[in-house]
Amino acid sequence: MVDWETTWLHKNGERRAVSISAEITDLNGETCILAFVADVTERREAERILRNHHAELEVEVRERTAELAEAKEAAEKASLAQERFPGQHVA
């Protein structure tokens, strides 16, 4: 069994991603190639979109983590200042 992907040019001029599976088989004593071709264009596009969303989420998580680290540090500084000067409002 051999599997591969390639791009075919559709008769309307559009390029389509296809997955091909083929194997040599015996049919009534004659050696033949049995092949299956599947159009995977939409699947590949969905995978591309999913990878892009994943990358965008990674960036958002890093940014939000940095924001939370800054907020935590500011809160810890304010708490420390409050401990040093109890009863006073520290900004």
Largest beta sheet: strand ordering: 1-2-3
Give the assembly state of these chains.
single chain
Helix content: 40-55%
- Terminal CA distance reads 71 Å
Domain tally? 2
Structural class: alpha+beta
Q: Total helix count?
A: 1
Unreliable stretches (pLDDT < 50, length at least 5) are none
Mean pLDDT: 93
Q: Specify the overall morphology.
A: rod-shaped
Q: What is the helix/strand order?
A: EEEH
Question: What is this structure's SSE topology?
Answer:
Blueprint: E1 2-9, E2 15-27, E3 30-39, H1 41-84
Antiparallel strand pairs: 1-2, 2-3
Protein traits:
single chain; 91 residues; alpha+beta; 2 domains; 3-stranded antiparallel sheet; 1 helix; rod-shaped
Protein described:
The protein is built from one helix and three strands; from the N terminus they run E-E-E-H. The protein has 91 residues and is of the alpha+beta class. The protein has two domains: 38 residues; 43 residues. Strands 1-2-3 form a three-stranded antiparallel beta sheet, covered by helices on one side. The chain is rod-shaped and about 95 Å long. The mean pLDDT is 93.
Question: What's a quick, concise take on this entry?
Answer:
This protein is an alpha+beta fold and 91 residues long.
